[in-house]
Amino acid sequence: MPELPEIVIIAEQMNRILPGKKIQDISIFQPKCLNHPEKDYHDHVSGKIINSIKPFGKWIEINLDGNDRLMVNLGMGGEICYLKANEFPPEKSRIVLRFTDRTGFFITLWWFGYFHLVLKGENHPMTHSLGPDPLMLSYENFEEILHGRKGGIKSFILNQKRIRGIGNFYIQEILFRARLHPLREIPSLSSKEKKRLFNAIQNVLTNSIKLGSSSYELDFFGERGRYRLDQSIAYKESAVCPVCKSKIQKIKTGSTMQYICPKCQKL
Q1: Which of 48, 225, 236, 240 could serve as 64's disulfide partner, Cβ 3.0–4.6 Å?
Q2: Under 8 Å CB-to-CB from 63, ≥6 apart: which residues?
Q3: Domains along the chain?
Q4: pLDDT at 202
């Protein structure tokens, strides 16, 4: 699933070449990912000019002239990729947009995903209640978000209403670097541990963005990033911790799984 670093990279690439392009037509092959009747997309999207593209957690915000917006969430394994002039989209495409210069982009949605139209003055419930961008937080802001909260630290950070953009891929590296067990209760965290966690979030996400995001996901031009978890423990069951050489364990954390070092990340 594309998370904050992947969305940041894709939005930056889209914003580099798409503003000013006029949408000629839109083809929709998976209506269940829409929030409006399909006719509304043809009426309100075709003929519009793209103004800008912004990342918003795990969402891509495409701003059109007239103050309408397209909100894209790629779900599990989805892709959004550029089409050169007269280039054909793959058969697995669920959405295809074409511009008047014959370029365009396609969207694939493997499991779930959303392609929402937000009209001028309209509220978008799925993004309206999202928490702040973790890379825009100061440590003081982060402390305030944690203050008085209960429950496990992993489930809290994965809650998009608390902090947006972090999923199960990056949380594993973040918690390993912070030396925190995913089931640690928030009230049990010391100030020093909170600081380590904040720094780990900043470092992991920033490093992935610098490297073009994850090697597991495609960017807007169909290329893979250079960020790999080579120095971590994620997805390396039966391997050894690069710090203490303990055997890596795979544990269940609610509805997700997590790779941990039992010595560096004690519960």
Answers
A1: 48
A2: 50, 51, 52, 53, 54, 69
A3: 4-128 (3.20.190.10), 134-260 (1.10.8.50)
A4: 98
